[in-house]
Amino acid sequence: MTRFAGVVLSVVAALAATGAAVWVSLWWWIGAVPLLLVGSVGVWDLAQRRHSVLRNYPVIGHARFLLERIRPELQQYFVERNFDGRPFDRDVRSIVYERAKGTDAEQPYGTEQDVYQPGYEFLIPSIAPCPVPDTPPRVRVGGPDCSRPYDMALLNVSAMSFGSLSSNAILAFNGGAAAGGFAHDTGEGGLSEYHLRPGGDLIWEIGTGYFGCRTKDGDFEADEFADKAAHDHVKCVSLKLSQGAKPGIGGVLPDAKVNAEIARVRDVPEGQTVISPPYHRVFSTPRELVRFIARMRELAGGKPTGFKICPGSRRQFLAVCKAMLEEGTAPDFIVVDGAEGGTGAAPLEFADHIGTPLTEGLITVHNALVGTGLRDRIRIGASGKIATGTDLVKRMLQGADYGNSARAMMFAVGCIQAQRCHTNTCPTGVTTQDPRRIRALDVGDKTLRVKRLQEATVASALQIMASMGVSDPSQLSPHMLHHRVGPYTEHSYAELYEWLEPGQLLAEPPDTWASDWHTADPDHFTV
Question: For a designed S-S bond to 484, which of 86, 120, 239, 462 qualifies (C-beta 3.0 to 4.6 A apart)?
């Protein structure tokens, strides 16, 4: 309540000073006028629904917006240090905010990027652009073993759990998904009423803790899983093997966030820190993994079932592919999470040094599936700093069928990356379980922002593809994306990376893949 004490005191003081000015002396107006102004601003801040920061920090919250208007040095300083030490272009953040607010605008005088700097990437436009499709294409997810396929949007809300996020944030995400016709990944924190109430399509994610479908001992509970997976709003189920923020270790939900509601949703004790194990109990070999995916699909009534992974060893993934071939079944989708992505808190060394970046991870998974003849039955989702239409087009060029976004979606609901997620004191009500802070996040306003961001980003991707002469994502090719390797040298992705032919690993593996392919064991996760 100390956040509101200044407003209350200023209003009381303003009324007292005004009374004194009327009944005692006109000199009191010298103090009454500024106090009335401050009090009025504070009351307006508390009543308005557009800015969560101002609702939680009336009057003083305006200092943040003032700093953002100081250009360029101070704004650059604060923005660059607001992103976990990893680059996230200031212009990208601006694009996301503007699109979420419905005020996306063009900018004169061209790019501020150094187009001759090594690392700069650019897409190749066509002399003969094609019309932009009237309706965004969708991706059919569901292989031959799936009886209830789902048509996935090109961009969806990535995995973020209830518990890590507030109830209002979850409501806004799912409400935006319902209004915009795209999917919302629940994250591994269970299936709550806030995921179900707005009516948006859900991808129910199950992690190593099996939250929402676990026994008292922390094992997988099949009956509870089947009961919840049967819900009409659950369109797909996903098994999380690892995530980009911290591959190889589990998540942590501090005890301060584990209230009675969170404990009920996750099937865990109230008030105790929840730690997700780093590994799964339900499988220990590639073959057991593939069998468990098939079992999940059966329990879910034939709905599309897949897994999420931040790739590591190529040999291990090839072992999973061999298990698919030998077992005669496969997941319906695989979500590739990049090491540069992730909104979850993680140890700094894991965030900076563990896991494969999304580009290499996508290309590896895509090539492995193509080379084993499995690509046609498995869809690939990409998750890792997808914020703009350009990001989406690049990822589809690199092997993805669709994209998932977490960080940009958090921006849409008001996140300012204050990096206080684990303290339960999020200033915008996004990552807290404090009811007084949660109320600052207006669900109606943020629902609309989520919908706008997704629609504008997909529209941008389609417009970019049309400028490249492409009317459907299936027509995208690696030669359309170029990467500068030196001030005077650039190569297309078709030249930079090796791309396998369908079934090539089964027929005659290239030398660069032969060792990993021959040593991959469907009965062991050999590094």
Answer: 120
